[in-house]
Structures are given as C-alpha cells and as structure tokens.
Amino acid sequence: MGTIEKTGSAVPSAQAAVKPDAIRRLLAPAALLLLSVVVALCLVEAGLRSAHYGEGNLIHLEKFVEYDPGLGWRHKRNFSAEFINDETHTTLRYNAQGWRGAESPYSKPPNVFRILVLGGSFIDGYSVQVQDRLTEVLESNLGPRFEVINLGVVGYGTDQDLLVLEQDGLRYQPDLVVLAFSYNDVWRNGSRYFANSARRVQKPLFVAGEDESVTLTNVPVPPPVPTTQERFKLYQLIRTVVKGTPLLHGVAIKAGVADAPGLVWGEEFPVYRRTENATFAKSWAVTQALLRKMKQESQQRGIGFVVFYIPARIELSPEEWSSAHLPAEYDPGKVVSRLSTICREEDIPLIDPSSRFQEAAKQGPLFYLHDTHWNPAGHRLAAGILAEYVQNTAGGKGGAAPASH
C-alpha cells in the first residue's frame, strides 16, 4: 500500500504574521482618541467643580440643610451662605441650634409672652432678609413684652412641625404656638418623600389609626442618595443645555431619556380637586390627626394653639388661576374650606388672611413673580394680621383663643 503524506506549513504565512501588527496600528489611534476624550472630560469636570458650577441653581433644601435621621433634614448648624436667584439676594445665617435668626435660650425671661412659630419655607423666609421676615416684623409690631421664636424649616409639613414642637419647641416654654399651613402640607403629611426631589429625599411618615391616633413610621429616615446630576457637574451642564434647547429637549423626550414637561405645580396640586381621591383623603385624615395632637400637646401645658393659613398666590388671583388652564374640577377655595372644617371639628383657631391679601394686592405685589413666596410686603402684611390676633385674643396672657374662620 502506498503512504499518504500530510502536508501543512509549520511556518506562519506572511499574511498571518502581519495581522496582529495591523490591528495594533488600527487600535492605537482609537485608544489615543479615547484617552484624549476622557482626559478632556476630566479637565472640564475639574474646571466646573473649581468654578462651583450649578451651586447657585441648587434648591434651598439641598444647599442649606443636612440629613437628620429623625426629621429627614434640618438646617445646618453655625452655617452661613448667600441665596441668589433672579428676584432676590439674601444672606442666610443659621445659629448653633440650627435656626435662622438670633439664638434664644430655652428658659423664658420673666414677664415675657413668648410666641413659637412653626412652618415650612414661608416661615423660614429664605427669600427675604431676616429683618423682613414675618416673625421679626411680628415681634417688632408687638413690642418689648413679646418674644417670637421662628422654628421654620424649608420643605417641612405638619408632621415634621409636630416633631419639632415635641423635640425643641416645647422646651422654649411658649405661651402661644402658631402653625403656618399651606396647600402642599397636605400632600407632605401623607408621603414619606419630599415632593419634587430628584433624590427622592425621605422624611418621617405618620399613619392615622382608626382610633384617631397617629403612629410614627419610616424612622430612622434612610439617608438620601446623590443623583448623577449631583455627582458630576458635566452631566449637569449637558442636562441644562439640553433642557434649554427645544430641539434637543424634544429629541431627548422621544428617546426616553428626558421627561415631558408636566403640571408646573407638581404632585401636591391635586389637593385642589373638589372630589378627593384616595391618596388625598388619606393625607387629610393624617393632617387632622396631626393638628389634633398638636393642640393636645399645647393645651396640656396651658399653651395656646392657632393655625395660620398661607394661601398660595394662585388661589388669590382669578386671572392666574384661569391662565394656568387647570382641570375644571379644581377649586381654588378647596384647601382652605377643608382646613376650616377640620379646625371647627377640632375646636382649633384658624386665621385665614385670604381676603386681606386680595385687598392689599391691589396696592402692590405681595409675592415674588417666579419664586411664589412672599416678598417683604407679604411678610409685613402677614405679621400685621397675626399681631392683631395676638393683641385681640391672647392679649399677652396666653391660653387658647377663639377661632377666626
């Protein structure tokens, strides 16, 4: 039989030998280009950080407060910074106790009627200088026998106001507790999140029981997780450019990487619906239980308690309400009407300054145009109305005053 010889080449061909080198020659420029892009992006990021890009655009909650496991957030202690937007430039200073304004000892001076004011951003008053705030103007209007302590924190609802009252407020030995209440408090009282927060900042949550009690949950509050926008300034810059360019924003929306613009008032605004949905019915039940508890905590110590309603600017202006093109089932008087019913049922005094604000607005603006909070004139008017209440009902002697509906 013949033999069959296998043929093959033990030596690589010239074509095979040069293939890896060709690949390397092709990849080298691509790798260099990629490295250059990465270095350039890092340099841009470093430049944006050194220039503190975007810090002026941070919302007040993220810039002036810090995480708190019991309250969700609270003001930074011994902290000072400038707050600047298109309409105002204010200096914010928070004392060693974390409150804006002069530091007050817990012990009350003799022969002094002490008023404690709780609330959210309207009471914190970040959009005006401290001397123009409701509480400072109120103290000036009432005279030397009165002392007004402001424990307002931006973003707080009635639930966090209750916790502040229990943890700090009652230690000041007040004669009167004033709770400022606005439409967005209702949503907050039923949510474990701060509304419209990109980080979904969490907060304590009270749950109403069938026996009209409330149980505190979601404590300790989980710390917030920084967003991509907070971690990377370059991402924030790109996002700002895209949102500011209609064509690019439209492309981003179609690609599913950006949200379409929604109702400017956010997720709290359906509280104005004439017919409450299940979410807001639950929030109102919690709100009533919280108000009841705040009144009880005050009355047990012989302290007066009153709710001061803060009407939203859009509630006071039929023109603005109409121009917002809200659903027909939304009613600008819904919130204050529902709150009035609760206060009557709980025998809690309620001050509704809406008509006074509508009349005064004929003489000049009381709110900022874009910020939607009171300007100094709005704070002065609110302080004057509250001063009248104190002088006419409490009289500097303490105790509960009759309701004003």
Write the layout of secondary structure elements.
Layout: H1 14-50, H2 60-64, E1 65-68, E2 72-75, E3 79-84, E4 89-94, E5 113-118, H3 121-124, H4 134-142, E6 146-150, H5 158-167, E7 176-181, H6 184-189, E8 205-208, E9 214-217, H7 228-231, H8 233-244, H9 246-254, H10 278-299, E10 304-309, H11 313-316, H12 318-323, H13 334-346, E11 350-351, H14 354-360, H15 376-394
Helix pairs in contact: 4-15, 5-10, 8-9
Q: How would you sum up this structure in a few lines?
A:
The protein is built from 15 helices and eleven strands. It has 405 residues and is of the alpha/beta class. It has three domains: 17-51; 55-224 and 266-394, 3-Layer(aba) Sandwich (Rossmann fold), CATH 3.40.50; 227-257, no CATH class.
Which features does this protein show?
alpha/beta, 405 residues, single chain, Rossmann fold, 15 helices, 3 domains, disordered N terminus, five-stranded parallel β-sheet, disordered C terminus
Describe the 3D structure:
The protein has 405 residues and is an alpha/beta fold. The chain folds into three domains: 17-51; 55-224 and 266-394, SGNH hydrolase (Rossmann fold, 3-Layer(aba) Sandwich); 227-257, no CATH class. Helix content is 41%, strand content 13%. The protein has 15 helices and eleven strands. The strands form four sheets. Strands 6-5-7-10-11 form a five-stranded parallel β-sheet, with helices on both faces. The chain has a two-stranded antiparallel sheet with strand order 1-2. The longest helix has 37 residues, at 14-50. The protein starts with 13 loop residues before the first helix and ends in an 11-residue tail after the last helix. Mean pLDDT is 84; it is low at 1-11, 56-60, 256-265 and 396-405.
